Amino acid sequence: MVLKTVEFIKSSQKWQDCPEPNLPEYAFIGRSNVGKSSLINAMMNRKDLAKTSQTPGKTQLINHFLVNESWYLTDLPGYGYAKVSKSTRKDFEKLITNYILERKNLVNLFVLVDSRHTPQKIDLEFMEWCGESGVPFSIVFTKADKLKPNAAVKNVEIYKNKMLEFWEELPEMYITSAEKKEGTEEILKYIGKTNDFLAKNKVKFD
User: Fold this and answer.
1) Which DSSP symbol is given to 84?
2) If I label 6, which of 42, 80, 148, 195 is the partner at 20 to 30 A Cα–Cα?
3) 109-118 pLDDT, tens per residue?
């Protein structure tokens, strides 16, 4: 996919405040320290499109970016660890849940997972909820550059085996590195092909 234009549209505190659901939308989510903002910046070939921080939980709003004037990239708040109160964390969870379930034009949810770690309960439970809720999602393994060669691939295989204990079929999976921009083109190709399919079949969301 050739990136011609990328622009920030708005930040929303409620899913109802998001832009009109008239374009295909692809959302990115993961635990608070998974490297989501860095990956989005690498994908969009920008240094500071999505705000990065050393403090987990920095993204607290639904952030919309319009790409090529034809689809939305959405940066969602992280789930799990964040240095916030329990009540605020519940607000985050409600915000995320309502957005995912109610957003009509959400085509795919990219769930980011740190490739350096063994399968984490919080990630597996979140993906199980997505499956039970009928939410289409892909798994994006981040920070592959932090591992020795082939280590990321081995960790992904461990992840696959773990998921196959509960899943009959596995979602699309991508191994990425924001630092080296690995895997970013594959994700963009998927989005491009999906958008072409939606356009060819004249799919409307609103």
Assistant:
1) S
2) 80
3) 999 999 998 8
